[in-house]
Amino acid sequence: MHGSAMSGWLLMALCATTAAYCLLRTRSETGEGRRTARAEALMGFGMAAMAVPAAVVTPPAWGWAVYAALFGAASLRALWFSRRGTHHLHHLVGSAAMVYMALTMAPGSGAAHGGHTGDGVTATAGGVPLLTGLLLAYYVVYVLRSGARLIPVAATATAGGGTAGGSWGTRPELALACRLTMGMAMFAMLLTL
Fold first, then answer.
1. Concatenated DSSP letters for 79-93?
2. For the chain, what percent of residues have pLDDT higher than 90?
3. Which phi and psi angles does 129 have, rounded to 5°?
4. Mean of the pLDDT values across residues 18-33?
5. 3-state secondary structure of 109
6. Is 128 exposed, middle or buried (0-12, 13-18, 19+ CB in 10 A)?
7. Exposed e or buried b for every residue in 15-41, given b needs 16+ CB within 10 A?
């Protein structure tokens, strides 16, 4: 990712920690919940890998193609499972955004030069590519909506004088906080394009 090394390391640590929690959730979830937790863990670890500052570790030229292929497959998986529930559509948007970032950040993509991205999506009047702007708008709405949903869950979890019970992997407020954190991280990554 472009930007300062400190912010890159912090973003990487945040995404890796969130992904590790999602892996913890896979142990206590079943069925659809487990699939969702796996998809979120993949997204978190992928975001962590992309956030490593390029000044420290420069990924090989073929690395961006691996990211694009991995998240392209995740997009197809999310599209397949979206027929069971609409929450997979968010995973589809996230995976597609990761493919877009991988293609944009690949060496020789020509991204952000001349007001065009590598795939021909023209820039808006301010110089931000249209697709980047749409993804930024999506993640602003997603983060605000997730934050608003988190407040009532946290209030009911502590209203009885304790936590909602169960293990760390079954606490709904932590799963929502995980989604909120990854939404903010995705927004931050898109800002650096």
1. HHHTTT-THHHHHHH
2. 41
3. -60, 145
4. 87
5. coil
6. middle
7. bbebbebbbbbbeebeeeeebbbbbbb
